[in-house]
Design a protein that fits this description.
The complex is a heterotrimer. Chain A is of the alpha/beta class. Chain B has a five-stranded antiparallel sheet with strand order 6-5-4-7-8, with no helix packed on it. In chain B, strands 2-1-3 form a three-stranded antiparallel sheet, with helices on one face. The chains are: A alpha/beta, B mainly beta, C alpha/beta.
Chain lengths: 393, 153, 388
């Protein structure tokens, strides 16, 4: 195509409960930071859009309410993805390449604090996302507070069984991410836990332990994404989006291959092809991926091509994905370490990956990052997700 | 599809409880309404736009440099709607009315109930004033405003 | 540089108050129809774009993840977009950018809605409103439209009789539409005598509640020219949006859809169209209520501002008129499954290809415009398609 797309502005709030702010105010903070970071004003914005889910927000047609906070008033903005935030990066890429807009703002906000979790708000949302004829009636008969973990545990149990992954290996992932998050000033709820702490934490549904399941949190994130011409004019630190890919696997839980995430494998394939990456384990310097549950991170190592099929256990055992390792994964702490801003987390992964490329990740900066990967998942109980490759040149 | 099979339906309900954060601007608005019976607005320090409902940031200038100003409890009807339907869809005799009222001393307005007036007597452009609930019944909700009624000359 | 993008097939199905099929079954029908029409297979599809307006209607949170199979998107890139009523056109615009960006050559767009699964539609609609300033007031859709319509009639002197004429036109047009839910042969008197939903909107000014889906296939220029020697191009796209604080917007009058004018201008700029009244041959405009079609005629520049009453009085928008609008019946006559109002785009395509059957307008159609509207008087998405 002869034209490229870059992230020129990043705005990210802390990850912590903010009952004092409305969701618009929190989203404004992120967008305001992103615009300042990019050095542009609202006038410069071509279009702006958001990623959100009505039920997570408690607002039908929730797209209506984020418009003001992403700078979209009286602008050509009529786009809201009902997807994880990583898809926002993919859509912004297409928007810029297709020429509707040269400068696009993607913003997303999550307020877990607005869901009454003591009354199982999120669990009810998970129940509501289940196929209504065959799956939901069965899941309706179980105590709702355990539903999410039981669904994840079905896949986790099979994955561990299939490849001989041990509980200790998933615990190592959790301990790694909890520890990494303590270096991340935005992760307000970060706390260090040892592998032993993780193994001893409450079993939610075997094999998933409490410290291996991300807690939900509030956060907002916004990225300013622009064409090559604008990026070169405005910034000396463009983060090039060199590859995007996303994919949806089967909606039938019964038909899924639970041992892998083929939708991420396909998404990564597409993104790597675009970016010209042939040996991901060698060519990728850092990855921010979607570790809602510790076992998922291991599954995603394989799907992202960081190791061969079933090889994820070795990767974590050999410390390859630790902060000081050959291919650090989730140096920010990931969802486990900083919290899961469900739906926005994919965009936040892209933000951290972008900071890494710029060399602005502070205490958890990986040295010499040229290529970073960010990955998102549609969340339980979906079988879809996206991958984005970011480069310094 | 076989004609002998009758379609089956599965009943279900989605119950998701929420506690929405009203936010910085909303919290001040509702607190002032409850405690002092005042309609507080925010004014953007850059463009001077007086926002009602108040926002903590100006969506046009895109800054959060705003100051609180008091708007009036009186205003002008921009438009209104009359309904003869109860909450379960049955037709009722005495209608209820909603209006969008632009509040004086602000550049915005509120969605409000109308009362103490017959539907046929309501006009776009009519001057109206707020009737609040007695202070001991106000709880910090937009419903602390009972309704708006025409201003008697 | 953006690539040229064409529409190479549309998938239709009958709209109904209630469809017994599941989402997947309902969607498969239109996806299959679109592929058949375009002469393509599922393997040819590069990506799928899908969307509905309100998950609470079909009662499945994140419902787009449940339609992977029916949409043809299994193990393909699938993206979901939902912007309330304007999804009807903002969805195909996303499909368009998939192809125009160069990323995919063939994209299937599926718009769907199952409103019948929900037994308390009004309660659902109430959850669409701002929880602090609007929901407690008990606003519902009839009142929301009463507020806007009253202002529109006041601002421009539009009359209830003119609104009624739009209803008569559209419901009558739907008699020729094999997919229509509620075609009716009625008179202006019938409309005026129907009960008020909220003045000035009456029952017969209101589109019905509907289940249904539509599919549209977009293709790059290379692929389009292999499929047909008469491609219908996407000539312009536009989107406009305004603040959610509709009760306190800058320089705003509910009677004038500023954000719709914005969207239309963007589309016209892109299409290089300077005189819509002359250069647009046909329009399918979003008409959940009759006065909305009128407001959209004005915002799309098909008549002067405030002139929609004159436009219907002079018969300009009739099927045989100078600038026909909604010869398919529109949402009034065909049905309103919110997002699947993408049917407006489908009918524009059919009119240009002369494949509209009994709905075909007598005049030559080379360029057509369609739009979608949604939110709290907030969104408009516009698409202009046509021959070179």
């Amino acid at each position: 195509m002869g034209k490229r797309v870059a992230i020129i502005g990043i705005g990210l709030t802390n990850l912590e409960g903010r009952e004092d702010l409305s969701h618009k105010e929190l989203l404004f903070q992120a967008t305001r930071r992103a615009l300042t970071d990019a050095g542009i004003s609202r006038n410069d914005i071509g279009s702006a859009f958001t990623t959100s889910y009505d039920l997570l927000e408690g607002r039908s047609l929730s797209n209506q309410f984020s418009l003001d906070a992403i700078g979209g008033v009286m602008k050509p903005c009529d786009l809201r993805l009902g997807e994880d935030g990583i898809y926002g990066v993919c859509a912004a890429y297409m928007e810029v390449m297709a020429k509707p807009s040269d400068i696009v703002v993607v913003g997303s906000v999550q307020k877990a604090s607005e869901r009454r979790e003591k009354e199982n708000a999120f669990q009810n949302i998970v129940l509501a996302s289940l196929e209504p004829v065959y799956n939901r009636p069965v899941c309706n008969t179980v105590p709702i507070s355990g539903l999410e973990y039981a669904l994840a545990a079905m896949e986790a149990r099979w994955y561990l069984h299939r490849y001989g992954i041990s509980e200790e290996q998933t615990a190592k992932v959790a301990a790694k991410n909890h520890k990494n998050a303590t270096k991340n000033p935005r992760a307000k709820n970060a706390k260090k836990y040892s592998v032993k702490d993780v193994l001893n934490s409450e079993v939610l549904s075997w094999p998933i332990k409490r410290l291996e399941a991300a807690e939900m949190t509030d956060a907002a994130c916004a990225l300013v994404i622009a064409s090559e011409e604008v990026a070169k004019r405005i910034t000396d630190k463009p983060v090039w989006i060199t590859g995007v890919g996303w994919c949806s696997g089967t909606s039938y839980i019964e038909s899924r291959d639970l041992s892998s995430s083929p939708y991420i494998r396909a998404a990564a394939q597409h993104a790597y092809n675009m970016a010209g990456i042939k040996h991901p384990a060698k060519e990728i310097d850092v990855a921010e991926i979607y570790d809602t549950y510790a076992y998922k991170e291991l599954q995603y190592y394989e799907a992202l091509g960081f190791c061969g099929e079933g090889g994820a256990g070795r990767l974590i055992d050999e410390g390859i994905t630790e902060l000081g390792g050959a291919l650090p994964v989730n140096p920010s702490g990931g969802l486990l370490g900083e919290g899961n801003a469900v739906g926005t987390s994919g965009l936040i992964r892209a933000a951290y990956a972008a900071y890494q490329v710029r060399g602005e990740a502070g205490d958890f900066q990986v040295p010499g990052v040229d290529v970073a990967v960010a990955q998102g998942w549609g969340g339980i109980p979906t079988y879809c997700g996206g991958v984005v490759v970011l480069s310094r040149w | 599809m076989s004609k002998d099979i009758k379609p089956i339906m599965v009943p279900a309900e989605i119950q998701v409880p929420y506690n929405y954060s009203v936010g910085i601007a909303g919290s001040r608005f509702l607190t002032e309404l409850r405690d002092n019976g005042k309609f507080m607005a925010t004014k953007c320090k850059k463009c001077g736009y007086v926002m009602m409902p108040p926002r903590s940031f100006c969506e046009d200038c895109f800054i959060d440099d705003v100051e609180w100003v008091e708007a009036s409890s009186k205003g002008v009807i921009q438009t209104f709607a009359v309904s003869y339907m109860s909450s379960d869809g049955k037709r009722i005799k005495d209608p209820w009315m909603l209006a969008i009222v632009k509040l004086d001393k602000s550049d915005g307005g509120l969605v409000v109930r109308l009362d103490e007036v017959k539907p046929d007597d309501v006009k776009i452009g009519m001057k109206v004033e707020a009737v609040l609930k007695p202070k001991n019944q106000r709880v910090g909700s937009v419903l602390d405003i009972q309704y708006f009624r025409p201003i008697k000359d | 540089m953006a690539r040229k993008v064409a529409i190479v097939g549309v998938g239709m199905q009958k709209f109904a108050r209630r469809k017994e099929e599941t989402l997947n079954e309902m969607i498969f029908e239109v996806a299959r129809n679109a592929l058949n029409e375009a002469g393509l297979t599922r393997d040819d599809i590069g990506a799928v774009v899908c969307g509905n307006a309100v998950d609470a209607f079909c009662g499945i949170h994140n419902s787009s993840k449940c339609i992977t199979e029916g949409s043809g998107g299994l193990m393909k890139p699938m993206m979901m977009n939902s912007t309330s009523g304007s999804t009807a056109i903002s969805l195909p615009i996303l499909g368009y950018t998939h192809v125009a960006s160069g990323l995919y050559d063939v994209v299937m767009v599926i718009a769907y809605e199952k409103m019948s699964e929900n037994l308390g539609a009004q309660a659902v609609f109430n959850t669409c409103y701002d929880e602090v300033y609007v929901r407690p007031l008990g606003l519902n859709v009839p009142l929301q439209c009463g507020l806007e319509a009253r202002r529109y009639l006041y601002k421009y002197g539009i009359t209830e009789v003119q609104m009624a004429k739009v209803s008569v036109k559209n419901r009558g047009n739907a008699l020729s539409n094999p997919y229509a839910q509620l075609p009716m042969k009625i008179t202006v008197g019938d409309v005026l005598n129907s009960p008020y939903i909220s003045w000035p909107v009456k029952l017969l000014d209101t589109s019905p509640v509907t289940d249904g889906a539509r599919a549209v296939i977009f293709a790059s220029e290379d692929v389009a020219r292999e499929i047909t020697d008469d491609p219908v191009w996407v000539r312009g796209v536009g989107r406009g949006a305004n603040s959610c604080y509709f009760m306190g917007r800058r320089l705003d009058d509910l009677g004038r859809l500023d954000y719709a004018y914005l969207a239309a201008n963007q589309a016209y700029d892109m299409a290089g169209i300077k005189n819509p009244k002359v250069e647009i041959d046909y329009a399918e405009l979003y008409d959940p209520f009759t006065y909305k079609e009128m407001q959209h005629c004005e915002a799309m520049g098909l008549c002067e501002e405030g002139g929609a009453g004159r436009m219907i009085d002079e018969g300009i928008s009739l099927k045989e008129g100078k600038l026909p609008v909604n010869a398919s019946g529109g949402l009034q006559g065909e049905g309103n499954p919110i997002a699947a109002g993408m049917s407006r785009l489908c009918w524009c395509y059919k009119m240009i290809k002369k494949e509209a059957g009994a709905c075909q307008v007598p005049k030559e159609v080379n360029t057509a415009i369609c739009n979608g509207w949604g939110g709290m008087y907030q969104y408009n998405a516009v698409m202009i398609i046509g021959r070179d």
